[in-house]
Each structure stands twice: as C-alpha cells, then as structure tokens.
Amino acid sequence: MDPTSQPISQKVTKISGTVTPPRSPLPYPFPFHIIPTYTTTQSPPLLLNIMQHPLKHHLTLTLLALILLSHFPPASPVTPCRTVCGTTAINYPFSIDDGCGAPQYRSMLNCTGTELFFMTTSGRYKVQSIDYNKQTMVVYDPAMSTCSILQPHHDFVMTDVESVVIPPSSDTVFALLNYSIDSPVLNRYKNLCFNFSGHSCDELYGGCNAFRVFRSFTNSSPPCCFTGYDTVKYMSMNILDCSHYTSFINVDGLKGIGPADWVYGMKLSYAVPDTGCGRCTRSGGACGYDTETGVMMCLCSTSMNATRECAAGSNGDIGSGQKLALRTKFHAFALVVGAFIYFVIFI
C-alpha cells in the first residue's frame, strides 16, 4: 500500500505512552507532487500535534495575535500639548503648556477650568474667540466699563513683546470717558482723537445708561475721546486724566448702530512665525520649543522630541526617523515569526 494513502491513525505508533510520528520513508529532498494530501475529515500531523497539547495551542494563538498586531500601523503619538480649553481650540502659535507653540507667545494664555484667559501685566482678559484663518483673537476686560455697567478705570497694559507680536487691531477703538480739561488729549494731543463711522461722544453719554450719570454733573456732555491703541499704550489713564474707559471692535460695521449694540472688547491681531511647523504637524507631532534655548522642536510624545518631524510621519518625505521605525518594525516582525516557528516545532 502507498504510505501516502494510509490514514493518519495508522501512521503513528505508541512508544512508552507517547505518540511519535514514524520516520518518513521518503528521501529528502522529495518532489512536491508526492506531498501527502488530506481530506476534510483529516488533520495534518502538525495541526494534530498542536491540538493534542493545550499549552502549545495557547502559545500558538498568542504568537499569531502578535504577528497580526505587528501589521497594524502605530497609533498616533500622544503629544504633551493640550489642544483645547473649554470650547476654544488651542493651535499654533498659541499654547497653554510651557514648551508648546511658538516661544514668542509663551505664557500668554492660561486655561482655568473651561475658561481661557489672555495674560498681561495689567491682568487677565477673557478670550471670547480665536480666528485662526483671520489670525485674530477677541478678548474682554472684566473690569472695563461698557454701555450697561460703570466700573473704575483700569489700564490696559501689554509687555513690549506682546505689543509687537499681538497688538490690538486697527478696528479696535478705545473711548476715554469723563476726562478733565487738563487732559493732554484735549490740549496738546487733541489730534489723537477722532470720530468713527459717524459716531460722536454724545451718543455714549446719551445712549448708555452707565454713562448717562456723567451728564448729571454738568449741563452738557463731558469731554471724551475716541482713539487708537497707541494712545493708551504710551499714556496711562492717570496721565490722560480720565475716570473711565471702554473699547469696542469691528467699528467699520457700526455705522447707523447705537452704542447699546456695539461689541465691547478688544480684537488682537497676530502673525504666525514661519518655522516649518507644517512638516511637524503632518507627521503627527506638535510644534514647540526648548524651554531653555527657545529653539524650535517637534514634540512627538511626552518622552520623545525631534528637530523637524516625528518618526510616524504621514507625509511623503520619509525622514531618517521614519526609516529607523520601519527597520525596527521589520526586525520585530522577523523575531515574532522566528519565535512562532520555534514554539510550534520544538515545544
């Protein structure tokens, strides 16, 4: 009888209580056309051997799982930079974590609970919105007077760096209210004051409940001044000799609109530094900097940084870090396959 046609049950012999496959009568190497085949009711010797040993069965399944997992792409790196505060997205160049974003904007934002604040030497200003397309940020001073509330004057002071990299935009107007006849903007620097969109100071004193009180002290409206940021940048409220101030934005669209409906606050305008941040973000990293030197870095995880991009980049330009990751993955896969073969054959 042809040995290849014998049932598997007839091809094994029992020796000392163990099942040992007989030596193959076929020479090695042998032609592939005489490799034994099995019907659907039969099991190959290797599979039968695995199934008869539970420990080997579990090890085999574990190794198979490792092989499958090695083919899945690595998860996106977890960067140390938070990207949201409440409902406000935090993107480059801003950050709420030291070492993230651009160094020029370091420590400008603070996230307290779900509220985002713009930090200056004069206080904390609540961030109402950030438009990353128009590169503007709208902030609001809680201590500032508005059409509905009157509060003591509060200087708006920015550092030299802040006033350069993120100054108030040109469509932000400051209104200096109830200043004395000795104020510099009423005498020597009266050219710093202007009207906008057809509005005058009389509208503020007559149309706002909070400012109407100033009329009770005189028979006419006290002086006021609509001016730009440069005025309050170089002269404090004490120098300007005014008791209150307010500010509003989008003044070009306020023609024909009363002060009760103006948008009170300050719009800040910023620029994004060209540091090659796009390459870093496309590779899954976050743009940041060395907190000691200020040199730009690509933050890939809480424990790994790179100069330009992360190893698991998604862009077409494969860097040295990505090549190293591919080599490491290949070596790990070969190690798993070798271990699998060892366990199946020798254990």
TrEMBL record:
Uppermost EC category: transferase
InterPro entries associated with the record: WAK_assoc_C (IPR032872), WAK_GUB (IPR025287)
Region (Disordered): 1-20
Superkingdom of the organism of origin: Eukaryota
This enzyme's EC code(s): 2.7.11.1
Keyword Signal found: yes
Compositionally biased tracts (Polar residues): 1-19
Domain Wall-associated receptor kinase galacturonan-binding: start-end pairs: 81-141
Boundaries of every Wall-associated receptor kinase C-terminal domain copy: 265-301
Reactions accelerated catalytically: L-seryl-[protein] + ATP = O-phospho-L-seryl-[protein] + ADP + H(+); L-threonyl-[protein] + ATP = O-phospho-L-threonyl-[protein] + ADP + H(+)
Entry keyword set: Glycoprotein, Membrane, Signal, Transmembrane, Transmembrane helix
Membrane-topology descriptor: Single-pass membrane protein
Localization per Swiss-Prot or TrEMBL: Membrane
Gene Ontology MF annotations: polysaccharide binding; protein serine/threonine kinase activity
TM region positions: 330-346
Any one of the GO CC terms: membrane
Protein name per the record: non-specific serine/threonine protein kinase
Organism of this sequence: Gossypium hirsutum
Encoding gene, per UniProt annotation: LOC107935121
